[in-house]
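USER: My hope is that you can spare some time for a protein that puzzles me. I am handing you a single protein, as its sequence and its fold in token form. Walk me, if you will, through where the backbone shape changes along the chain. The protein I mean follows directly.
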Amino acid sequence: MSSSARKLSPAGIAGTARRFLAGRDGSMMPMMVLMTIPLVTAIGFSVDYTSAVTTRSDMQSALDSAIISITTLPTTTTLADRQTALQQAYAANSGQGAATLTSVNVAADGSASFTATASYPMPTSFMQIARINSVQVGVNSAVRKTPALVQTTFQVTKVSGYWNKSMYLYGTKFGQTNSASLMRIDYAYNGYQYSYKSGNTTYKVGEPKGYGTTTVYTVNGSTQTKVQQQVCTTTGQTSAFTNPPAGSIPGTATSNGKTIYFNTSCANTFFPANSAGAVIDVSQMDQLYLEMDVPSGNPSVLKSNDSSTSNRLYMGVSQTDMPEVATGQTVNIFTAVPCGQTSYQAWEDGGNAVPAPVSNADFFYNVQGKCDYNQRPSDTVLTQ
């Protein structure tokens, strides 16, 4: 075996190194190279570490966005389809590696939780000096959703006034910007006036609040379906009513020094007969607002999401306990209608200044809310 092929013993290696470092007849370059290697290695490891931190941050952001996106899918979506949607959304948000949906739990009351992970073997640049070719980067994400409004049932209880008016419920679907009408309620004053004679003069007096016919429709695109109609009939006389029908509405007015007595009865008809009013699916809606159009009023358009007109809306827990919305605030219909409870609401149509007692309001109705698992991304909370 030739001397060039012999293996050096540890002592020989050490001796060679000492001679190399102690040499006086050569350049300092070899020594400088040896001293620079640890520094370069440290800088290189730092660069790879910084790259890993940045990659992890990007992966976390992508996974958070992806897991939120799959909570907008229907409850009937299979786990495999959710997994596919998760990976697609993760990649679309520039997530590196593979995302895995680890759990989906939807309780009977509609509350839900989701967990997911993502991992990526990030290639290294400088750490390959130490034969570390990749670093495993992993992230986790978890979200929860509480039950929220998925269905509303509107039922008119009493509408009054001399002005004709219409109330609407508008909704905006997920991912859309244009709102569409989901419900319409039209009120038409019946124009009733009581006539009486005093001497040779005939006088006509209207009931002070004024009543008429109110018709409720559900709206689906260009199709309107009548679901409730309330017809109010008023009678008047110059003496007080004795034994008026239960639920009728009394009223008085003064004419030519004489008190005129009124009594109004309102009859409801539902379509179909066993329904409870306008049942509206809002599970696909990201936004909801109410609007009242009063052509003769000032303002003529009132909106629950308009801080300049929302103070004409009353909301509460009973027909008589309905505080007015504070001036300058807007109303989130999703939270204004509690789960499994009745929300009592009313509008002042513009004939009276506000603030004013709820007794001055003109448009009374109840809203029953049904809550369940919802697909609104805004109701998703990151927990990890």
The first strand starts at residue 98 and ends at 106. The helical segments are 10-22, 29-70, 79-92, 333-336. The chain has two domains: 10-145, 149-377. The longest helix spans residues 29-70.
